[in-house]
């Protein structure tokens, strides 16, 4: 049977790229700043661990600055909340987010886009930036959270699919391409489950090859995980694969058919690091490092957990 592959949502146009600033709240985000404050003694906010007790270079300068933070699309909602809390501590720092697939963000950095912090959904892109491009500032790279790939549908889809094993029974599938971490992890799981043949680099398995292996099912190829979610929630595709964290805020619409075991995908670790930015002055560099310290603090872990991320990482 011939494979059916489209480069946008099944029967619908794909949403525009997500680029957000810290002052913009995601439409489906449930801001948890207030609830965290209530649970923390004396109303303190995230980032108040021992490290912040020292007077940092950022605090010494007190100058307004702006940092460019490139984040995987699956981080957009939680990072809006974290940025809001960070700005309560540092109102002089403007945080501008560029949210997209980690592969696309890596390409942009390599092409010379100004970036201070890279927060990837995969070690692969960070390894390239670090070991091949030598653009990661030494000593700033840290693992932050783990995630889990899910097979999802909508509550009224009537699908016969129960998980990855019989995903070919869907009339249409929304799937990120192999350069996108969730697309790579999905392909890895399909190989491990015997749905796809072995490959030296699973990210190179094309969407057309996935469709053929699944009997010619229609697959809508998406450029990031947010667009996969949109294709499913808008009813354009019957099922799709996203991260567990992407279902936050969509509990009334989305049904998780299966959380794909780590035995099939491997861990889905998100690393963060400061990026060498020749255009950044000392204040901007200090703000970038301070923001990374905030994102990796114990208090920030509570926020990530609210958004369905696993913070038990090394």
Helix proportion: 25-40%
The biggest sheet, with number of strands, parallel, antiparallel or mixed sense and barrel status, is: 6 strands, mixed
For the biggest β-sheet, the strand order reads 1-9-8-10-7-11
Along the chain, the helix and strand elements come as EEHHEHEHEHEEEHHEHEEHEHH
| Low-confidence runs | 11-55
* Beta strand count: 12
CATH class of the largest domain: Alpha Beta
> What is the second-level CATH architecture of the largest domain?
3-Layer(aba) Sandwich
Tally of individual domains: 2
How confident is the prediction overall: mean pLDDT? 87
Number of helices: 11
Kindly name the structural category. alpha/beta
- Give the C-alpha Rg: 20 Å
Rough shape?
elongated
